[in-house]
Design a protein that fits this description.
The protein contains 10 helices and 9 strands. With 231 residues, the protein is an alpha/beta fold. The protein has a domain of 143 residues: Rossmann fold, CATH 3.40.50.1220. The strands form 2 sheets. Strands 3-2-1-7-8-9 form a 6-stranded parallel beta sheet, sandwiched between helices. Strands 5-4-6 form a 3-stranded antiparallel beta sheet. Strand 2, helix 7 and strand 3 form a beta-alpha-beta unit. It is globular and about 55 Å long.
């Protein structure tokens, strides 16, 4: 097995599986670290649940509006390098991300599977109209029909969208190379995607914390920013 750089050159079908660590260098905190979104918050998983949205929409909205949006965040070298690799001749690249910040698309990646949805798509729950995120940040009430607007993200107690699962599985089953980046890779079903890889596919993991995966892979325990700068 060669280096990650060599594998990126030799592989035609590549899947990047990305998590919160990828966006941390863009100033977006993860969820559970000592400086994460949940730190110091009382019952944050309830605040991001379907029950809270239904029963206490004002509380849900205040938490999401005040804690989830980072409009000044820009793609970092990891996002940009993945988009660049996608533009190389002969490459079929899919990014499957747990992140809901839209930075992969902002960096120029065209084939992105947002496994948990996106904060930047918003929909009125009553009439189904899609609305700009700027409108949602002003108010979660839709003036046209009085419905409650919500971001199109997967909340606790909700199922993942079938389309996202199917697109991710299609990419994984055809991939020559799978690169896991910036994630502890412990949250199911995201961490189960590699179960559907081809037997001969090559797997790399790039993460500051050591990952212990039940498969053959090469671990690069380092800051992903440093690694992707050199690719």
């Amino acid at each position: 097995m060669g280096t990650l750089a060599e594998s990126l050159v030799s592989s035609e079908r590549i899947v990047f599986l990305t998590g919160a660590g990828v966006s941390a260098s863009s100033g977006i905190p993860d969820y559970r670290s000592k400086n994460g979104l949940y730190m110091g918050k009382e019952n944050p998983e309830y605040l991001l649940s379907a029950t809270c949205l239904q029963n206490e929409p004002d509380k849900f909205y205040a938490f999401v509006r005040d804690n989830m949006y980072y409009p000044n965040a820009e793609p970092n070298v990891i996002h940009k390098k993945m988009a660049e690799i996608e533009r190389r001749a002969g490459k079929k690249v899919t990014v499957v991300t747990q992140n809901i910040d839209g930075l992969h698309a902002k960096a120029g990646s065209r084939n992105v599977v947002e496994f948990h949805g996106s904060l930047y798509r918003c929909t009125c729950q009553r009439c189904g109209m899609m609305l700009h995120v700027e409108r949602y940040l002003e108010s979660d009430k839709h003036e046209d029909c009085g419905g409650t607007i919500r971001p199109d993200v997967v909340l606790y107690e909700e199922n993942l969208p079938e389309d996202a699962i199917n697109r991710a599985l299609e990419a994984i089953t055809k991939a020559d190379l799978i690169v896991i980046v910036g994630t502890s890779f412990k949250v199911s079903p995201f961490c189960n995607l590699t179960d559907y890889r081809k037997a001969e596919s090559v797997v790399f993991a790039v993460n500051q914390e050591l990952l212990r995966l039940p498969l053959k892979y090469t671990m690069i325990q380092d800051n992903a920013i440093s690694i992707f700068k050199e690719l």
